[in-house]
Specification:
Layout lengths: L11 E4 L11 H10 L4 E4 L6 H15 L6 E4 L2 H7 L3 E4 L6 H8 L4 E6 L2 H10 L4 E4 L18 H13 L10 E5 L7 H7 L1 E2 L2 E2 L2 E4 L1 H4 L4 H13 L17 H15 L2 E5 L5 H10 L3 E4 L6 H7 L3 E6 L5 H16 L4 E4 L7 H13 L4 E5 H10 L14 H6 L10 H14 L3 E5 L2 E6 L4 E5 L13 H12 L8 H4 L9 H26 L3 H17 L5
Parallel strand pairs: 1-2, 1-10, 2-3, 3-4, 4-5, 5-6, 6-7, 7-10, 11-12, 11-13, 13-14, 14-15, 15-16
Antiparallel strand pairs: 8-9, 16-17, 17-18
Helix pairs in contact: 1-2, 1-9, 2-3, 5-6, 10-20, 11-18, 11-21, 12-13, 15-17, 18-20, 20-21
The structure holds ligand 3NM and magnesium ion.
The site of magnesium ion has 4 residues, from loops.
């Protein structure tokens, strides 16, 4: 019963790639830094080495892993694995069939199989020879070119496969472990690790390539990843939520000084109607706007500009813009810079909802912001994997929505329930805008911020430009989504990046609506309200300065 291989630690799974080592670093140096700083299992993946060089490299890596009790898995090449007596083999769907590999390596070596669909996962369950599966591609990646789903399948796609694995229990000799792979890094690790679970089954770890192998500091990169995987969410189920825990006034004050000290740059890919207004709002709060839809410069922006955030607003969609959105998501994810996603009118048509789903699975969104109608549409996308549950099982969320004929009828509890589902699947922090604004985080925190003024809905752009302010606040953190350990005292338990993002978002929403309220005090018509609103944003963000 106690099969040894089931007790391997898959939590921090490094897959190597010798083609992306930064200059002055060495392949073995990167691997050594990883195994000395928390990597729990190593897969040697070489696509171009000669057999002789592959074996030499495998021996070198094995000398690093074996004394530390870290398993070495060889990708694809059963012969190389046997030659160096590695601890296991990993095969993809085009490689040697798992059954044959098992026959060749014997019963005790570790065997892993890549799966991208529930059908492939089902086959692994039925064959009953693998110890673990690598599930992907979670988010779009440049590391592997020939993946089955280049856009990514997102946590929901992973959960569909977990559903299949969950049905194995009792039928198999040993439980199959699962790791998620594709586009994962320090900025999304804790989110994805916690999002890729269903009540009966959780992933055991994350597999990464570039965020360690291509890092200038592989040791720190590994420690950051380990730290992110230690974050456990507070629970986040509705009944456990303390609905008013966050004090939005004190949050705003501390976040305002962060904002004015950092001069964030907000890159907008937004709709044609609001570009000018969003740029003015961004300037008013002391941040800088940049408008670009040229994918060729996104990577340069994201890699070089500090305190950078992206507003991705799909309000005036077109075919070409979809590619622009995808490129931006990939670049900002790669460099771990924040994205505020605004799914404007995403429920307007089936095509728009499909496009929204595609973007949400292409990469990790730091914050999603929408009105109740948009949030309801995004919520529908979270129900995908549940549709595959057996009919006999109760679907409490369907229960939740039954009887709701219009958005206006949603109760506060229903809004929190939808928001929580979305935060478990698509983003660490969600903002639901309206007469009352709800901010919900995947770690279970929530805040409620009163709306500014009814006049705000009379000025086009006041909805969308909240995205600019949120992006500025989130980007004002010292270094985007990275380097949290440098600002925070290591002794506190609040090392949760999501918490800090949450606080930034609460600050942004508070500022925005306070400005709206102040502007409405003296201006009762939309035109003068609009200019007064910009003035109030300016005053609120510049008054505390001592110049
Ligand atoms: N397999 P990175 S994606 C090796 O989907 C591999 O099966 C994948 O690299 C799959 O962490 C992938 O740099 C590469 O995004 C993942
Ligand atoms: Mg392969």
């Amino acid at each position: 019963q106690d099969d040894d291989s089931n007790f391997k630690n898959y939590k921090v799974y490094l897959v190597t790639d010798s083609t992306m080592i930064p200059p002055v670093k060495t392949f073995l140096g990167q691997v050594e830094d990883a195994v000395n700083n928390g990597a729990t299992i190593i897969q040697l993946r070489e696509k171009t080495l000669s057999t002789r060089d592959f074996i030499k490299r495998a021996e070198e890596v094995h000398r690093l892993t074996k004394p530390r009790g870290i398993p070495l898995i060889i990708n694809d090449r059963v012969d190389v694995a046997l030659a160096v007596d590695a601890e296991g083999v990993h095969v993809g769907q085009d490689d040697m069939p798992a059954k044959l590999v098992r026959r060749m390596i014997g019963p005790t070596k570790i065997l892993g199989v890549t799966c991208s669909t529930p059908e492939e996962a089902q086959q692994v369950v039925d064959e009953d020879v693998a110890d673990y599966v690598g599930l992907g591609t979670v988010y779009a990646t440049n590391t592997k070119k020939d993946v089955t789903s280049p856009d990514g399948i997102g946590p929901s796609g992973i959960k569909e496969m977990l559903q299949v694995l969950a049905q194995q229990s009792g039928k198999r000799k040993k439980n199959i472990q699962a790791v998620a792979i594709g586009g994962l890094n320090q900025s999304n690790a804790s989110f994805v690790y916690n999002a890729c679970r269903i009540p009966q089954y959780s992933i055991s770890g994350l597999a990464v390539v570039s965020c360690i192998m291509a890092s200038q500091d592989a040791a720190q990169a590994t420690r950051d990843l380990v730290q992110q995987l230690q974050i456990t969410p507070l629970g986040g189920r509705l009944e456990e939520i303390d609905k008013n825990r966050q004090d939005s006034c004190s949050t705003l004050e501390s976040k305002l000084s962060q904002l004015s000290n950092s001069h964030p740059l907000v890159h907008h890919i937004t709709n044609n109607v609001v570009k000018n207004f969003s740029a003015n709002v961004t300037l008013a709060i002391g941040a800088s706007p940049i408008m670009s839809e040229l994918p060729q410069e996104f990577d340069e922006f994201a890699s070089k500009i500090p305190n950078l955030g992206l507003v991705l607003n799909v309000g005036t969609p077109n075919q070409q813009l979809m590619n622009v959105f995808s490129s931006a998501i990939k670049a900002y994810n790669k460099h771990q810079k924040p994205i505020v996603f605004d799914p404007v009118a995403c429920g307007a048509s089936g095509a728009r909802l499909d496009a929204t789903a595609k973007l949400l699975n292409t990469g990790f969104m730091t914050v999603i912001k929408g009105n109740v109608g948009e949030v309801m549409s995004v919520w529908k996308l979270t129900q995908g994997y549940k549709a595959k549950l057996m009919v006999s099982e109760q679907n409490s969320d369907e229960e939740l929505m039954r009887g709701v004929d219009s958005v206006a009828e949603l109760s506060e509890d229903q809004i929190y329930a939808m928001a929580t589902d979305i935060c478990f699947e698509f983003c660490p922090v969600l903002v639901v805008t309206g007469a009352v604004n709800y901010i919900v985080s995947s770690d279970g925190r929530t805040a409620k911020v009163p709306g500014g003024s009814a006049l705000m809905s009379m000025v086009t752009g006041t909805g969308c430009s909240l995205g600019s302010v949120i992006a500025a606040f989130v980007a004002s953190r010292a270094d985007g989504l990275q380097a949290e350990h440098e600002q925070d005292d290591a002794s506190t338990s609040d090392k949760n990046k999501h918490f800090d993002i949450f606080a930034c978002v609460v600050g942004a929403v508070s500022l925005y609506n306070t400005a709206g309220k102040r502007a409405a005090a003296d201006h009762k018509e939309p035109g003068s309200f609009m200019t007064a609103f910009i003035d109030e944003l300016y005053k609120l963000t510049h008054s505390s300065k001592s110049n």
